[in-house]
User: What shape does this take?
Amino acid sequence: MIDEPVEILVNLAKDGEIDPWNIDIVDVTDKFLKRLEEREQLDLWVSARTLLYASILLRMKSEVLVEEGDKGDEWDFFGFQPECFQDFQIETYPPLRPKIRRRSKRPVTLTELIDELKKAIDLREKREIRRMRRGRSRPTAEDTLRVIEQEDLENRIRAVMKKLKRIFKRQKKVVFSELVEERTPADIVQAYIPLLFLAIRKKIWLEQKELFGDIYIKSR
Amino acid sequence: MNDKEVLEAALFAAGEPLDAKELATLVGKPPEYVSELLKSLIEEYKTRETSLELVETGERYVMQVKPAYAEKVRSIAPREFETPVLRTLAVIAYHQPVTQAEVVSIRGNKAYSHVVALEERELIKSVPHRRTKMLTITPTFVEYFGIETNDPKLIRKMIEKVAKGQISA
Amino acid sequence: MNDKEVLEAALFAAGEPLDAKELATLVGKPPEYVSELLKSLIEEYKTRETSLELVETGERYVMQVKPAYAEKVRSIAPREFETPVLRTLAVIAYHQPVTQAEVVSIRGNKAYSHVVALEERELIKSVPHRRTKMLTITPTFVEYFGIETNDPKLIRKMIEKVAKGQISA
Assistant: This one.
């Protein structure tokens, strides 16, 4: 499986086997995407997972960085070691031992299963009513992926790049909303995905100053 | 601390049947001795005023709620699956064979992780289907819920019947 | 089927503390009546020759193995948390209030996921503190380990004792 190496890395980092601090995420992800490109067609599933894993690694790394900085602040603030380290230097923290209670889970009954089915149907109906009131439906991840798969992704990426090049001749920055023809979820996603690929291939810069704010596209 | 009470504590803590050999290791005595002790413990439980019982079932021993009390306290016993997972399973059982895409459109994006959990427990299985997966229930599902058939149509009919309260499952 | 035995079955099945209100709903009687019955059930357990006990803990009632038998059967009881998680919990309980950053510096990066699991189980709670989180133990912690106090100093003493192998908490 081609997607295994990154997954293994993430799991190793999670388990504390490797130090996320010392992984070169860009390097790992680049190598990985390069291998994907060598295949005839990009598999969106696999590349999406790569992005996901890379973001998890990045998050682990940034957490460590942020917290490293923090610790420094704290020592400075107190000017000395916290009290708890002074009175008794505990060497091995023992695994605490909880009370022994019965931890047994019973199987679910068929009646309970069917009750949940009724609730699932009720929930769905409520959701559909809400959707109708809002006048549009919120797509699931599966819907989104189905939209994409109907298209030849590579052709779309090329088309978007062509369009951007034309605009970059006149101006340095493009606002994402200008690229979207109609503000439907499908159109937004179709315009956005090629940009992600272009950004990863280092053709453009993507910048978003605030969450849910507009995205700016710059040439690089 | 006597051996009989250690056995009692062990059966309580395990929450599932244990055999004489496992229990013998625990008290460091031969299995025959353990079996004898368990016999007298079973008798003691019968004479106690209690809703709990010790039962020997196929060479193994288990502590459980007496059948007469089981129904009464069922709602309090923790279920194997959380409600949202169970709800997703219900949707799959009713609509099967059904694509993961369809299940997600009914249950929302959280259904992805439910499908993983249910597949691990072997209650459902999947085969690749275009870009999604086609989901069906398994013989384990049929056995788990004590259903007599694995014909999807009959299962759906039976679910409808139970839902309408015509039969109790 | 008498109420007292229904309560006993319920506490057995639940495997965690229940309050008088939940138990009252189950038997369809007022909570005061249930509390009275539970008191006498607790007494009965004390006179029975058994390794199990009923305890009142912070307005709630729970059935568990008597402390004297706990270590003897721990190997047989399904564990809720792996040893590394319990060690991280010891670090938090010992140093509380303590930042997540500090816990990670003691326990390593794996502590992040331990903190998530312990928070989900409500054994610890966190409040945002600059860029990290400040962690403290909760009443659930105190109850889970059957500790009689939530005084940080006494809890620290207890952990020191466990570390030195003097007691088994």
